[in-house]
Design a protein that fits this description.
This protein has a domain at 6-176 and 215-244 and 278-294: Rossmann fold (3-Layer(aba) Sandwich), CATH 3.40.50.720. Helix content is 38%, strand content 16%. The protein has ten helices and 14 strands. Helix 5 (142-162) links the parallel strand 5 and strand 6 (167-172).
Length: 328
């Protein structure tokens, strides 16, 4: 369905975006990518636009003539950075989401995909899509979680007032893969542990006691799921995850095996360990015919091989916490 279609991907040079763009290009789509990253990170067969999506006029411009819009752009960072820099999460996310959805609606696109997050959920053993509005986001995800919830609420408001029923909402779990954010200041758990392992930290110091359970999914699987959700024109929010939990302790053991060298693990129990369990119910996604294809061990090996091949000297992506130059 995407052959010769004009498709816009915001955040198309990011962790999931690169995988999604590759699939779209292979499907014969005419892809436009919007990002603040270096243009060299974009797929060679796409149109690249470096624009500021906090500005509505720029959102409206990039949406002109588009058939499909995949809105992936966001702000990603560790829980520690979230607690210290909450405005850097909340404000850009609100502006990105509000502007892009309104621009896509005005451009009369065929379909719009809004990327929400696992952070919209309250702590629970298993996350079910319909439970979101019964509770509040976890304290560990309060700012980003509420910002993403507002995008979901905006889609509902458009459905009520305008009859705009062309939006899919997806909530990815803990996503990892090549081209992740490996910045030591605000990297998430998998890229942080991989970077420090590959750079020789031994013993490897890990926050908490290893007991928290997380739902990890490779970015390529997320991209596949996004395409399927749009192809099926699903309008109910849909979780994208593995549906299985893996403890941080198990995760470190997998990294240790993939590393293939002696590695001691040191647990810093004085540091916060986060919510005890965050696993997604993926029944809706399975009902569409989707099944994750990459195991955590396969995925970790993939990332570590990629990291080794690049020697850790890949081009740094735009980082809202480090890049202070204004974008007009």
């Amino acid at each position: 369905m995407f052959k010769n279609q004009r498709v816009l991907v915001t955040g198309g040079t990011g962790l999931i975006g690169r995988q999604l763009v590759e699939l779209l290009v292979n499907a014969g789509a005419k892809v436009k990518v919007v990002s603040l990253d270096d243009p060299s990170l974009a797929h060679p067969k796409v149109e690249f636009c470096r624009v500021n999506l906090t500005k509505f006029d720029q959102c409206a411009e990039v949406c002109k003539g588009m058939d499909y819009v995949f809105h992936l752009v966001g702000v990603k960072g560790s829980p520690g950075v979230t607690g210290k820099r909450p405005a850097s999460f909340l404000v850009p996310i609100l502006l990105f989401n509000t502007n892009m959805m309104e621009a896509a609606r005005q451009a009369n696109v065929k379909w719009y995909l809004y990327t929400s997050t696992i952070g919209v959920y309250a702590p629970a053993e298993v996350f079910h899509e319909d439970d979101v509005w019964k509770t509040f986001p976890s304290e560990n995800d309060r700012f980003a979680g509420w910002a993403k919830r507002m995008g979901e609420l905006q889609a509902e408001a458009y459905k009520i007032e305008y009859g705009w029923n062309r939006c899919s909402i997806v909530r990815p779990a803990n996503v990892y893969g090549p081209h992740d954010n490996f910045d030591p200041v605000n990297a998430m758990v998998i890229p942080s542990l991989i970077k420090r392992t590959m750079e020789g930290e031994n013993p490897l110091c890990v926050w908490g006691d290893g007991s928290p359970m997380r739902d990890f999914i490779h970015a390529k699987d997320v991209a596949r799921a996004m395409l399927l959700v749009v192809e099926k024109q699903a309008t109910q929010p849909i979780n994208i995850g593995s549906g299985q939990g893996i403890s941080i302790k198990e995760l470190t053991e997998i990294i240790k095996r993939c590393y293939g060298r002696p590695l001691e693990i040191e647990w810093d129990t004085s540091k916060p360990k986060g919510d005890l369990r965050r696993v997604m119910d993926i029944s809706r996604l399975k009902a569409l015919g989707f099944k994750p294809s990459i195991s955590v061990e396969e995925g970790i090996r993939d990332v570590m091989d990629w990291y080794k091949a690049t020697n850790g000297k890949f081009i740094k992506t735009y980082n809202v916490f480090l890049d202070k130059k204004p974008v007009s």
